[in-house]
UniProtKB/TrEMBL annotation:
It comes from the Bacteria. Coiled coil: none annotated. The lineage of its organism: Bacteria, Pseudomonadati, Campylobacterota, Desulfurellia, Desulfurellales. Residues 187-378 form the Fe-containing alcohol dehydrogenase-like C-terminal domain. Gene3D superfamilies: 3.40.50.1970, Dehydroquinate synthase-like - alpha domain (1.20.1090.10). InterPro entries: ADH_Fe/GldA, ADH_Fe_C, ADH_Fe_CS, BDH-like. The keyword Metal-binding does not apply. This is NADH-dependent butanol dehydrogenase A. Residues 9-175 form the Alcohol dehydrogenase iron-type/glycerol dehydrogenase GldA domain. Its EC number is 1.1.1.-. GO terms for cellular component: cytosol. One of its GO terms (molecular function) is alcohol dehydrogenase (NADP+) activity.
Length: 379
């Protein structure tokens, strides 16, 4: 086991009927109530949160309109509103896009400069407003980690921030809140959580980590089986619950603690596709990840052999890649660039855009040429 520090202060409140308790944690506070489009009004989560806030005399201002692949211009507006209203906490009711926007607003609230400075490593986050999450979509684990990803529409950069101050204080994980998540977003979430687990599993150099390998394999198997159940039966509580908790554990630091150095090259390439073409995060990963595995097949043959055996019960690296790619296709996730309307002629721009994030993340071996060669496996 490699040396590590594991720090995760987020309190998880898990289970049915927990949403109505959100207000109890917020008495005597003035909150920014942040959400996306219309989904929380349609499925009743909005009313549950409102009732709880009123019952507990919580003061709040509302701000809706976070879009998937959340953007910097919206964050600027919300920071201005938060400062004007002098709020002292943020309620984020949504998926990764709402939570990531909340984290960025929370950091920007205490910063006099441009909040984008944090994303380009020009400034470090020292302080942030406390964030309270009502999770409505299981995918990113933003509800239990310290990261956020935002797109700067002007520069076409989809970049991330991190900081201990960004861990949500409390996250309510009520699986019934995800019953209405449409099939395409179930698929996106499933792919995202699986790739969070497998980026570390396939890029770590240090191999004597049976606990972490076992966590990853169990979580991937659980995500695969619960995704299949959810697609057949959207209101299956156990399937939604197992899926939700797996997705949270997939990127809360647990599975990477002790594995030594690892990298997230597929996220680097996926973020470039989202930045340029506004394609959902999970859909970029179901295209890029099988391509990356094929490109690296020879170096990864031992790991692929183990992965194939543990997850799919097959003993062959090629078949392991095939198994994962056909699972993605079977749940309706795109696996080729053409599935999202992209072609060979787009590869150059994607690779060019990805290089700046590769450099930010210290992935210096990912040159424009190498990224283009990987993406050709997705044609
Ligand atoms: O906007 P509304 O109307 O709420 O609809 C949303 C949105 O259109 C809908 N939705 C959410 N909950 C629902 C629901 N529809 C019906 N019923 C519900 N209960 O789902 C759509 C997608 O939501 P979004 O928040 O964008 O999805 P997700 O949770 O996958 O978040 C994706 C974003 O998170 C980033 C991604 O890059 C992307 O920008 N990530 C954040 C990470 C982090 N902070 O740790 C890590 C990830 O790797 C990822 O990069
Ligand atoms: Zn992801």
């Amino acid at each position: 086991m490699k040396e590590f520090i594991f720090y995760n202060p987020t309190q998880i409140v898990f289970g049915e009927n927990q949403t109505k308790n959100i207000g109890r944690y917020l008495r005597n506070k003035k909150c920014l109530f942040l959400y996306g489009g219309t989904s929380i009004k349609q499925n009743g989560i909005y009313n549950k949160v409102m009732d709880s806030l009123k019952k507990n005399n919580v003061a709040f201002v509302e701000k809706s309109g976070v879009k998937p692949n959340p953007v910097l211009s919206f964050v600027y507006e919300a920071i201005e509103l938060a400062k004007k209203e002098n709020i002292d906490c943020i309620i984020a009711a949504g998926g990764g896009s709402v939570i990531d926007s909340a984290k960025t607003i929370a950091a920007g609230f205490y910063y006099d400069g441009d909040v984008w400075d944090f994303f380009i490593d020009k400034a470090q986050i020292k302080q942030a407003l406390p964030i309270y999450v009502v999770l409505t979509l299981a995918a990113t684990a933003s509800e239990m980690n310290s990261g956020a990803v935002i797109t700067n529409e002007k520069t076409k950069q989809k970049f991330n921030i991190r900081g201990d101050a960004l861990f949500p204080k409390i996250s309510i994980l009520d699986p019934t809140n995800t019953y209405t998540v449409p099939k395409n977003h179930v698929a996106n979430g499933s792919v995202d959580a699986i790739v969070h687990l497998l980026e570390g599993y396939f890029t770590k150099k240090y191999l004597s980590t049976p606990i972490q390998d076992g966590f990853v394999e169990t979580l991937v198997k659980t995500i695969i089986s619960s995704t299949k159940q959810i697609l057949k039966e959207p209101e299956n509580y156990d399937a939604r619950a197992n899926f939700m908790w797996s997705a949270t554990l997939a990127l809360n630091g647990l599975t990477t603690a002790g594995i030594g150095a690892y990298a997230f090259p597929n996220h680097m390439m996926g973020h470039s596709i989202s930045a340029l073409f506004d394609i959902a995060h999970g859909s970029t990963l179901s295209i890029v990840f099988p391509a990356w595995l094929k490109y690296n097949k020879d170096n990864l043959s031992q790991r692929l052999q183990r992965f194939g055996k543990e997850v799919f019960g097959i003993d062959n690296p090629d078949k392991a890649i095939e198994g994962l790619e056909s699972f993605f296709a079977s749940i309706g996730a795109p696996t080729k660039l053409k599935d999202v309307g992209l072609a060979q002629t787009d590869i150059e721009a994607i690779a060019q855009n990805a290089v700046s994030l590769a450099q930010k993340w210290g992935l210096n071996e990912y040159t424009k040429e190498k990224i283009a060669s990987i993406l050709k496996f997705a044609l």
